[in-house]
Amino acid sequence: MAKILVLEDEEDIRAFVVINLKRAGYEILQAGTGEEALEIFRNNDDIDIAVLDVMLPGIDGMEVCKIMREEDKRIGILMLTAKSQELDRISGLSIGADDYMSKPFSPAELVARVDAISRRVDMLKGDTKSNKFESGPFKLDCEGRTLYKNGDEIELTQIEYSMMKFFIENRNQSLSREDILNNVWGESYFGDPKIVDVNIRRLRRKIEDDSSNPQYIRTVWGYGYKWKQENDKEI
Question: Euclidean distance between the first and final Cα of the chain, in Å?
């Protein structure tokens, strides 16, 4: 079962999160400050998921998320926000969080969100087939879970990698937001579907020559998105 780092400065909330994740079978490490969380993170290279509160004294959850994502692109990250912190939710996703959850939340919702991230982490760990895909200037190496554009590596989070793989495997096909959500986040995900659009914007900034005029991830208005590239091949 996955190992989870829980960062929450309010002891009652942290205890609530910890006990419910332990009941679900997860191994838990916990921290009350951002500084403590980063120390634990750097001393334990087998952490699969981080559950991070946004509002913290000292180094806040956003900064912790950013640092963790820079140092480990495969860790799953779930942000905990207050209902009024819509900007924080979008900001968290834009810097690499996989999902966010508003307080207060039920034990069932907490476990379901963590389970979805855990399945995705496990899937990426097991995705070791030697398939390589080429699409225009891009090469996706599924064994190394690495994307190259014109020979230069583009660093991707686990969500971005999963989206790229899904797009290239289904190139020139229109994919609904629901298709993308189910494939990348899992069919049991019941969070905000806008998470798809936020991550599309983030991915476009990394791969497009001009993210305001995307040539590869095309919008299918009223439906979803399509990976468009002529002369694609699979090797």
Answer: 34
